[in-house]
Amino acid sequence: MDPASQDINLNSPNKGLVVDQSDSLSDVPVEGAVGNSANPLPPGLTEEEAEELRTELTKVEEEINTLRQVLSAKERHATDLKRKLGLSPLNELRQNLTKSWQDVQTSNAYLSASATLDDITHSEAYKKTQETLSQAGQKTSAALTTVGTAITRRLGDMRNSATFKSFEDKMGNLKIDVTPQV
C-alpha cells in the first residue's frame, strides 16, 4: 500500500484506507513542466541524470503534498479540541490582545513615554496651565450663571407686563371659545 495514496485525516472514517487518485490531474503533461520532452537538457547534464532529478523532484513534491495534508488534518484536529474546550476565536483574540497590551506596557518605548508624561504633569508650566484653565472655567461658569439669571429675571418682568397680561387674557378667552361646553 503506497503511503501517498492513504487517507491521513486523523478524524476521517476512511483513515488508513487507500484513496482513489485516478481522477487526479498529476499525470497530465503541462507546458513547461518538468519532464516535458520539449525542454532541452541543461548543459553538462545527461539524460540519465535528468531522469534521476525528475524522479527525486516527483518524490519531494509528493512528500510536500503529504505534509500539507497532515498539517491540514492537525489544524482541523486542533480546532476541534479548542471547540471542545470552549476556546472560541473571540477568546483567543481577547487573550492575544491582553498579552499584546502587557507587552506594550513593558516595552521600553511605553515606559519612556510614561516617564516623560509624568515629568510633564509635574512640571511648573503644566501646573500653571492647569491653574489658568481652571480659573477660566470657573469665570466662564460664573458668567453663564449671571446671564441665565438675567434672562430669567427679564422673562419674569415681561410676563408681568401689561402687554403680556393682555395677550394672556386674549389667549385664555380663545381657549374658552374653542373648548366645547359640557
Comma- or semicolon-separated keywords:
182 residues; mainly alpha; 5 helices; 0% strand; coiled coil; Tpd52 like 2b
Description:
This protein has 182 residues and is an all-alpha fold. Among the domains are: 47-106, no CATH class; 123-173. Helix content is 67%, strand content 0%. It contains five helices and no strands. The chain has helices at 47-84, 89-105, 108-121, 124-159, 162-178. It is elongated and about 120 Å long. It starts with 46 loop residues before the first helix and ends with a helix.
Short description:
Keywords: Coiled coil. The chain has 182 residues and is mostly helical.
Binned strand content: under 5%
Low-confidence stretches: 17-26, 28-35
* Main β sheet profile: none
Q: For the residues shown, what is the average pLDDT?
A: 80
Structural class: mainly alpha
**Integer-rounded radius of gyration:** 43 Å
What distance separates the N and C termini? Answer: 104 Å
Q: What is the count of DSSP helices, taking H or I runs of 4+ residues?
A: 5
The percent of residues in helical segments reads: 55-70%
Overall body shape: elongated
Order of helices and strands: HHHHH
Q: How many runs of DSSP E, i.e. beta strands? A: 0
Secondary structure elements and pairings:
Layout lengths: L46 H38 L4 H17 L2 H14 L2 H36 L2 H17 L4
InterPro entries: TPD52
Family: Belongs to the TPD52 family.
Organism: Seriola lalandi dorsalis
